[in-house]
Amino acid sequence: MNWLTTTLIIGISAAFATTFDDNLYLTAFFGKVNRHFRPQNIILGEFLGFTALVLASLPGFLGGLILPTAWVGLLGFLPIAIGINHLLTREKNEETVQAVSVDFASSATTKHRKKSLLATLRDPQTYRVSAVTIANGGNNIGIYVPLFASSNLPSLGVILCVCYLTVGVWCFLSYNLTRNPLMAPLLTRYGRKVFPLVLIYLGCSILIKSESYHLLPTIAMFSH
Fold this sequence. Notes:
The chain is mainly alpha-helical and 224 residues long. The protein has helices at 3-19, 22-30, 39-66, 69-73, 77-89, 94-101, 117-122, 124-136, 138-149, 153-177, 183-209, 216-223. It has twelve helices and no strands. α1 crosses α11 (183-209) and α3 crosses α9 (138-149).
């Protein structure tokens, strides 16, 4: 595979693994739309929060330009550890799925006066969504830092485009899930079974791409 195909696969895997949970609270937010809290608040707030997570992870890319690639690639163990942790604690999240699905019962169907982009940006309701996105994205930084560090500038651009496109897809799906609330728990249940494995795949890809596995004998020698 050429670099673009490989990067797209990694980007899609990273986007799914780090933004899947967003679908839960986005659907809950869309289910609470009213005359004061509108879909544009949710969409803009989600993108602002996600951008904050990306900016917080960019030092990883800068570090990758300075530090040896093989040593930077060892950060690939972070998504592997996160994925294993999710596999071990998956059952504890079932109550969250059920609790969130209760909020999907109703969504506003009345028409609202449109607000300008600037007015939406100033609306505190927008930052309510951003705060949830940032709070929910703690693991994102642990995944993006090693991923960005192991990427060059073209690869980083492709990965970010895929991630932002995926956030838009989740916004679209979450909005439509408020019209069919029975689908949300089903989507979440099966998604949670898949994305820990995707995280482990990402970590292994980073280790292989950076050829960090060559350092394992050296690390093992120093550990004794």
